[in-house]
Design a protein that fits this description.
Layout: E1 21-29, E2 39-46, E3 51-53, E4 57-61, E5 66-75, H1 80-104, H2 111-132, E6 140-141, E7 143-149, E8 152-158, E9 162-166, E10 173-174, H3 181-187, H4 193-198, E11 209-210, E12 219-224, E13 230-234, H5 236-241, H6 244-252, H7 257-271, E14 277-285
Antiparallel strand pairs: 1-4, 1-14, 2-3, 2-5, 5-6, 5-7, 6-11, 7-8, 8-12, 9-10, 9-13, 13-14
Helix pairs in contact: 1-2
Length: about 290
């Protein structure tokens, strides 16, 4: 399945009067062979005054606040990969709402500007720690982040974690670009999904936050969302165990969104489990849906 189109980075201002509800579920698992879990996920709700962490399962209205969901996969020796992904989502928790408040306070900053600043700051911090501490040398993290507002999902991404969208009545599409050698070949039409999964360089990252990379250019875009749409945020461990067709089948199923993330993660662990596995499923619902 080829990645979907990349819309303009800054979408029109949303209309709060048409705000939908969101329902979500999230789960992470260390897999069957790893001794620790280098994956981390994040769910936040925030407005101009408050920030709150979301539970693994929940439902809320976009009329009340914006919502952010993200997954991060860390890398590095010993436990530095685990630290890198946790540090990454903690920095998102602090920096993104701060950028939002500055924008709400009159500083002219678009969604893409705010997200680009957050990614640059995290990349700088991880790089500096890798240069300053021997135990952090080579430490880095992927980050795939979605910012939900009424009618829109703005997203930013670096690495090989993924964001998928299943539009109402449509087909599953991968919104993010895998920043890998094989991902580039697949986007160019030189490999299909089966060939990409078995390619010897499938894990060769070309962009990641930190890890000695001098520059990163995050993918920044926005997609319209409406009731009936579903989104999947996942690390590469999930797609190592499940084909895109299976992901689409799961998101199209009548299963409640509150159980979907656990079902996908547990199935991926049974099928492969060679890596840590993380998934967040987000469904856009009509207001006051029961």
């Amino acid at each position: 399945m080829q990645p979907g189109p990349s819309p303009a980075p800054d979408a029109p201002s949303p209309d709060p009067s048409r705000a939908a509800d969101l329902a979500w579920s999230a789960l992470t698992h260390r897999g069957r062979f790893r001794s620790n879990n280098e994956d981390t996920f994040l769910g936040l709700a925030f407005d101009a005054e408050h920030v709150r962490h979301l539970g693994k399962v929940g439902r809320a209205s976009l009329a009340e606040s914006d919502f952010v969901f993200a997954v991060s996969d860390g890398m590095g020796g010993a436990h530095s990969g685990e630290f890198a992904s946790r540090f990454t989502v903690e920095r998102v928790t602090r920096l993104l709402p701060r950028g939002f408040r500055r924008s709400a306070g009159g500083v002219s900053r678009g969604f893409s500007d705010i997200m680009a600043d957050v990614f640059a700051a995290i990349h700088r911090d991880l790089t500096n720690m890798g240069l300053s501490y021997e135990e952090c040398a080579g430490m880095g993290a992927t980050l795939s982040l979605g910012w939900f507002t009424p009618e829109w999902m703005h997203f930013s991404h670096v690495g090989d974690s993924r964001i998928y969208q299943l539009p109402r009545g449509g087909k599953l599409g991968q919104l993010t670009h895998d920043h890998t050698y094989v991902g580039g070949l697949r986007r160019a039409g030189q490999l299909n999904e089966r060939e990409a999964r078995s390619h010897p360089r499938r894990n060769a990252l070309q962009q990641v936050l930190g890890a000695g990379h001098q520059f990163v250019e995050p993918q920044l875009a926005s997609v319209a969302c409406q009731p009936g749409d579903r989104f999947l945020f996942c690390t590469d461990g999930l797609v190592d165990g499940l084909w895109d067709q299976r992901l689409e089948e799961a998101l199209l199923s009548a299963a409640p969104v509150e159980t979907l993330a656990a079902e996908l993660v547990e199935e991926a662990v049974r099928s492969s489990g060679r890596d840590n596995v993380t998934a967040i499923v987000v469904a856009v619902l009509p207001p006051d849906a029961s």
